[in-house]
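Q: Could you fold this chain for me?
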Amino acid sequence: MIDRIVLASNNQGKLAELQAMFAPLGVTLVRQGELGVPEAEEPHQTFVENALAKARNAAQHSGLPAIADDAGLCVDAFGGLPGVDTAYYATKFGYAKGDDNNVTALLEQMKDVTNRRAALVSTLVAVRAPFDPEPLIAVGRAPGEITRERRGSHGFGFDPVMFIAAFGKTFAELPPEVKNANSHRGQAAKQMVQLIRERWL
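A: Sure. Below is the predicted structure, expressed as C-alpha coordinates.
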Protein backbone atom coordinates (compact mmCIF):
# COMPACT_ATOMS: atom_id res chain seq x y z
CA MET A 1 0.00 0.00 0.00
CA ILE A 2 1.38 3.39 -0.97
CA ASP A 3 1.01 5.92 1.82
CA ARG A 4 3.76 8.43 1.01
CA ILE A 5 4.73 9.99 -2.30
CA VAL A 6 7.61 12.43 -2.72
CA LEU A 7 6.71 15.66 -4.45
CA ALA A 8 9.66 16.61 -6.65
CA SER A 9 9.36 20.29 -5.77
CA ASN A 10 10.10 22.61 -2.86
CA ASN A 11 7.37 25.08 -3.84
CA GLN A 12 5.03 25.58 -0.85
CA GLY A 13 2.17 26.79 -3.06
CA LYS A 14 2.38 23.71 -5.23
CA LEU A 15 2.57 21.39 -2.22
CA ALA A 16 -0.52 22.94 -0.59
CA GLU A 17 -2.52 22.82 -3.85
CA LEU A 18 -1.63 19.21 -4.64
CA GLN A 19 -1.94 17.95 -1.05
CA ALA A 20 -5.55 19.16 -0.97
CA MET A 21 -6.30 17.39 -4.25
CA PHE A 22 -4.61 14.13 -3.23
CA ALA A 23 -6.39 13.96 0.16
CA PRO A 24 -9.09 11.52 -1.14
CA LEU A 25 -6.36 8.91 -1.83
CA GLY A 26 -5.22 8.91 1.79
CA VAL A 27 -1.68 9.55 0.54
CA THR A 28 0.71 12.05 2.13
CA LEU A 29 2.84 14.17 -0.19
CA VAL A 30 6.30 14.91 1.18
CA ARG A 31 8.38 17.77 -0.23
CA GLN A 32 11.66 16.46 -1.64
CA GLY A 33 13.69 18.97 0.38
CA GLU A 34 12.48 17.36 3.61
CA LEU A 35 14.12 14.11 2.46
CA GLY A 36 17.35 15.72 1.31
CA VAL A 37 16.62 15.13 -2.38
CA PRO A 38 18.72 17.46 -4.58
CA GLU A 39 17.10 19.46 -7.38
CA ALA A 40 17.03 17.62 -10.71
CA GLU A 41 18.46 18.98 -13.93
CA GLU A 42 15.73 20.17 -16.31
CA PRO A 43 17.48 20.32 -19.68
CA HIS A 44 14.46 19.47 -21.84
CA GLN A 45 12.18 21.60 -24.00
CA THR A 46 8.91 19.87 -23.10
CA PHE A 47 6.98 19.75 -19.83
CA VAL A 48 6.63 15.96 -19.92
CA GLU A 49 10.38 15.27 -20.28
CA ASN A 50 11.29 17.67 -17.47
CA ALA A 51 8.59 16.30 -15.14
CA LEU A 52 9.78 12.75 -15.82
CA ALA A 53 13.40 13.72 -15.08
CA LYS A 54 12.33 15.34 -11.78
CA ALA A 55 10.15 12.37 -10.74
CA ARG A 56 12.90 9.81 -11.51
CA ASN A 57 15.45 11.90 -9.58
CA ALA A 58 13.19 12.16 -6.49
CA ALA A 59 12.40 8.42 -6.56
CA GLN A 60 16.08 7.57 -6.93
CA HIS A 61 17.18 9.65 -3.94
CA SER A 62 14.25 8.85 -1.64
CA GLY A 63 13.42 5.23 -2.39
CA LEU A 64 9.75 6.24 -2.50
CA PRO A 65 7.27 6.67 -5.35
CA ALA A 66 7.51 10.22 -6.70
CA ILE A 67 5.39 12.75 -8.48
CA ALA A 68 6.61 15.81 -10.34
CA ASP A 69 4.89 18.70 -11.99
CA ASP A 70 6.31 20.77 -14.78
CA ALA A 71 4.12 23.68 -15.68
CA GLY A 72 4.31 26.93 -17.47
CA LEU A 73 2.68 29.61 -19.52
CA CYS A 74 2.38 29.13 -23.29
CA VAL A 75 1.67 32.41 -25.08
CA ASP A 76 0.27 32.15 -28.63
CA ALA A 77 1.94 35.34 -29.85
CA PHE A 78 5.34 34.04 -28.71
CA GLY A 79 5.01 30.63 -30.42
CA GLY A 80 4.19 28.88 -27.14
CA LEU A 81 7.01 30.45 -25.13
CA PRO A 82 8.03 30.93 -22.32
CA GLY A 83 6.89 27.30 -21.85
CA VAL A 84 9.41 25.27 -19.84
CA ASP A 85 11.41 28.43 -19.06
CA THR A 86 8.44 30.16 -17.37
CA ALA A 87 10.03 30.22 -13.90
CA TYR A 88 13.04 32.14 -15.27
CA TYR A 89 11.09 34.39 -17.64
CA ALA A 90 11.88 37.64 -15.79
CA THR A 91 15.63 36.97 -15.81
CA LYS A 92 15.70 37.29 -19.62
CA PHE A 93 14.70 40.94 -19.21
CA GLY A 94 17.08 41.95 -16.44
CA TYR A 95 14.81 41.20 -13.48
CA ALA A 96 15.49 38.88 -10.54
CA LYS A 97 13.77 35.46 -10.65
CA GLY A 98 10.31 35.56 -9.08
CA ASP A 99 6.56 35.42 -9.71
CA ASP A 100 5.95 39.13 -9.44
CA ASN A 101 8.82 40.03 -11.77
CA ASN A 102 7.61 37.39 -14.26
CA VAL A 103 4.23 39.13 -14.40
CA THR A 104 5.87 42.55 -14.79
CA ALA A 105 8.11 41.31 -17.63
CA LEU A 106 5.18 39.61 -19.40
CA LEU A 107 3.00 42.73 -19.26
CA GLU A 108 5.89 44.79 -20.66
CA GLN A 109 6.60 42.32 -23.48
CA MET A 110 2.91 42.16 -24.42
CA LYS A 111 2.14 45.85 -24.20
CA ASP A 112 1.71 46.23 -27.99
CA VAL A 113 0.50 42.69 -28.68
CA THR A 114 -3.15 42.33 -29.73
CA ASN A 115 -3.34 38.51 -29.67
CA ARG A 116 -3.54 37.97 -25.89
CA ARG A 117 -4.35 34.24 -26.06
CA ALA A 118 -2.36 32.02 -23.74
CA ALA A 119 -2.68 28.79 -21.78
CA LEU A 120 -1.35 27.65 -18.45
CA VAL A 121 -0.23 24.04 -18.88
CA SER A 122 0.59 21.53 -16.16
CA THR A 123 2.06 18.09 -16.73
CA LEU A 124 2.17 15.70 -13.78
CA VAL A 125 4.31 12.57 -13.97
CA ALA A 126 4.37 9.86 -11.30
CA VAL A 127 6.74 6.89 -11.00
CA ARG A 128 6.74 3.96 -8.57
CA ALA A 129 10.53 3.64 -8.79
CA PRO A 130 13.38 5.45 -10.59
CA PHE A 131 13.23 3.20 -13.66
CA ASP A 132 9.47 2.63 -13.77
CA PRO A 133 8.80 1.75 -17.44
CA GLU A 134 5.19 2.93 -17.17
CA PRO A 135 5.10 6.42 -15.68
CA LEU A 136 1.66 7.89 -15.08
CA ILE A 137 1.18 11.08 -17.10
CA ALA A 138 -1.59 13.63 -16.68
CA VAL A 139 -1.91 16.94 -18.52
CA GLY A 140 -4.11 19.89 -17.65
CA ARG A 141 -4.60 23.01 -19.74
CA ALA A 142 -6.31 26.25 -18.80
CA PRO A 143 -6.72 28.50 -21.84
CA GLY A 144 -7.35 32.19 -21.34
CA GLU A 145 -6.11 35.65 -22.21
CA ILE A 146 -3.44 37.85 -20.69
CA THR A 147 -4.96 40.97 -19.13
CA ARG A 148 -3.32 44.39 -19.42
CA GLU A 149 -2.90 44.77 -15.65
CA ARG A 150 -2.93 42.65 -12.51
CA ARG A 151 -6.32 41.74 -11.06
CA GLY A 152 -7.08 39.87 -7.83
CA SER A 153 -5.05 38.80 -4.82
CA HIS A 154 -5.32 34.99 -4.66
CA GLY A 155 -3.04 32.34 -6.11
CA PHE A 156 0.52 32.71 -7.35
CA GLY A 157 2.50 32.79 -10.59
CA PHE A 158 0.59 34.30 -13.51
CA ASP A 159 -2.82 34.01 -11.78
CA PRO A 160 -3.31 37.83 -11.57
CA VAL A 161 -3.05 38.28 -15.35
CA MET A 162 -4.67 35.03 -16.54
CA PHE A 163 -8.23 35.93 -17.55
CA ILE A 164 -10.60 32.95 -17.81
CA ALA A 165 -13.57 33.76 -20.04
CA ALA A 166 -15.90 31.17 -18.48
CA PHE A 167 -15.67 33.05 -15.16
CA GLY A 168 -15.16 36.56 -16.50
CA LYS A 169 -12.31 36.84 -13.99
CA THR A 170 -8.61 36.19 -13.59
CA PHE A 171 -7.50 33.14 -11.61
CA ALA A 172 -6.36 35.52 -8.84
CA GLU A 173 -9.91 36.90 -8.53
CA LEU A 174 -11.47 33.47 -7.96
CA PRO A 175 -11.83 31.81 -4.54
CA PRO A 176 -8.98 29.27 -4.16
CA GLU A 177 -11.31 26.24 -4.25
CA VAL A 178 -12.85 27.40 -7.57
CA LYS A 179 -9.44 28.14 -9.02
CA ASN A 180 -8.01 24.79 -7.87
CA ALA A 181 -10.91 22.88 -9.43
CA ASN A 182 -10.46 24.59 -12.80
CA SER A 183 -6.75 25.39 -13.01
CA HIS A 184 -4.27 23.58 -15.23
CA ARG A 185 -2.82 21.93 -12.12
CA GLY A 186 -6.31 21.11 -10.83
CA GLN A 187 -7.21 19.34 -14.07
CA ALA A 188 -3.93 17.41 -14.16
CA ALA A 189 -4.24 16.45 -10.47
CA LYS A 190 -7.80 15.18 -10.99
CA GLN A 191 -6.57 12.91 -13.81
CA MET A 192 -3.55 11.82 -11.77
CA VAL A 193 -5.66 10.90 -8.72
CA GLN A 194 -7.77 8.73 -11.03
CA LEU A 195 -4.67 7.10 -12.59
CA ILE A 196 -3.07 6.35 -9.21
CA ARG A 197 -6.32 4.88 -7.95
CA GLU A 198 -6.66 2.63 -11.03
CA ARG A 199 -3.03 1.55 -11.46
CA TRP A 200 -1.29 1.73 -8.10
CA LEU A 201 -3.82 1.24 -5.29
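A (continued): Residues 25 and 193 are 7 Å apart (CA to CA).
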